[in-house]
Design goal:
This protein is α+β, with helices and mostly antiparallel strands. It contains 17 helices and five strands. It has helices at residues 5-8, 33-43, 86-104, 107-115, 122-135, 141-154, 157-169, 179-200, 205-221, 228-246, 253-264, 272-279, 283-294, 298-316, 321-327, 333-344, 348-357, and strands at 16-20, 23-28, 53-57, 60-69, 72-81. α7 (157-169) packs across α8 (179-200) and α9 packs antiparallel against α10 (228-246). It comes from Companilactobacillus baiquanensis. Residues 256-354 form the HTH araC/xylS-type domain.
Length: 358
């Protein structure tokens, strides 16, 4: 089954599940057995091939319909967190269901469906992945990178090591006449991709970039291609630990999107209005929801992130305090110093001097 991930992933742009005889045989970005079983219990018996049924589970919306392939019954369901524009959301989800079923019933997918397992064995997924993936020939590097980032976010460390190694050694035009140099170039590209993924998953920018810088320095010291394999495994472990210890996910997708926007745009002028415009939300509603979800007012959260980033700059660059305040778009140096001291107990100057004296 896992060898078909790249194809099945394309069925829907939002999380989905595929059922056969009431049992889930494939899921994408749901990974919650109780939730998957609830969908089956609530929708299987009332579903027909001519209708798309809607189910509300807590803050999530599920849309599903049944279809048949070679006398076997299947149900395809998509799920998404309930949004403010519910009417438009339901129309889109119905469209995803209809398109997904059409794809699954196509000649291209019919034989694959018949060969899928009768149930989703989560215990064996990780064990089977390594051997299955080695047998699967992916020539699309972008597709391979997408799968690698997905596995990294899900915390499948061993799978990520295999995927990273395959990305580095995928047969492409050499970037250098020297094999080792070519491998190093590809690893630097991979580091950039992974760091951006971590930032989008709400890892602090400073911590993420510092780790990437550290790994780049270590990479530069490698003198033999024989050491590349171990270094790739090291990369997977380091970023896995970064995500595990720093990434935060909130219940609402819009809040996760807001935090991602703050992380990515930390060096730009950002406030409640710029974020609400980006998310197409009412500023007051966003502010209230953000405080409820995170426990921190949105404006305070932004300043906390900027101060955290300034600590990285004070530790790792020769930038002046005024330059850091300007780069992070504080109104002036005084505002930066006051915000910094409120959160750390030290002035930026004292913090910088203490760090540099060690």
């Amino acid at each position: 089954m896992l060898t078909k991930v790249p194809f099945l992933k394309k069925i829907s742009p939002i999380p989905f599940a595929l059922y056969k005889n009431k049992v889930c045989i494939f899921e994408y970005e749901i990974n919650d057995t109780i939730f998957l079983n609830t969908i089956s219990e609530k929708l299987w018996d009332r579903n027909t091939s001519k209708t798309v049924n809607i189910l509300k589970l807590s803050s999530d919306i599920v849309a599903a319909t049944k279809f048949s392939v070679n006398d076997a019954e299947y149900m395809f369901a998509v799920t998404e967190e309930e949004q403010s524009r519910l009417d438009k959301q339901l129309i889109n989800m119905q469209k995803y269901v209809e398109i997904g079923v059409d794809f699954l019933k196509s000649d291209k997918m019919t034989s694959d469906l018949i060969n899928l397992p009768q149930n989703l064995n989560r215990r064996n997924i990780e064990n089977n992945f390594n051997q299955d993936f080695k047998m699967y020939n992916i020539e699309n590097k972008f597709q391979l990178e997408e799968i690698a980032m997905h596995e990294l976010v899900r915390g499948n460390k061993q799978n990520v090591q295999i995927l990273f190694n395959k990305i580095i050694n995928l047969s492409n035009t050499p970037l250098s006449k020297d094999k080792l140099t070519s491998q190093k170039y590809r690893i630097i590209i991979l580091l950039t991709l992974v760091s951006r993924t971590c930032i989008r998953k709400n890892c602090p920018v400073g911590i993420t970039l510092r780790l990437t810088d550290k790994l780049t320095i270590q990479l530069d010291r490698i003198q033999s291609s024989d050491d590349i394999q171990l270094f790739i495994e090291h990369i997977a472990v380091e970023y896995y630990s970064l995500l595990k210890n720093n990434a935060k996910n909130y219940n609402s997708k819009c809040i996760n999107d807001a935090v991602e926007f703050i992380n990515v745009n930390i060096y730009k002028p950002i406030n409640n209005d710029t974020i609400s415009d980006y998310l197409d939300m009412n500023p007051s509603y966003l502010s209230s929801l953000f405080k409820h979800e995170t426990g921190t007012p949105l404006r305070t959260f932004i300043i906390n992130k900027k101060v955290s980033e300034s600590k990285y700059l004070l530790r790792n660059t020769s930038m002046s305090i005024n330059a850091i305040a300007s780069a992070l778009n504080f109104s002036n140096q005084s505002h930066f110093s006051k915000s910094f001291k409120e959160r750390t107990g030290f002035t930026p100057k004292y913090y910088q001097d203490v760090v540099n004296s060690k």
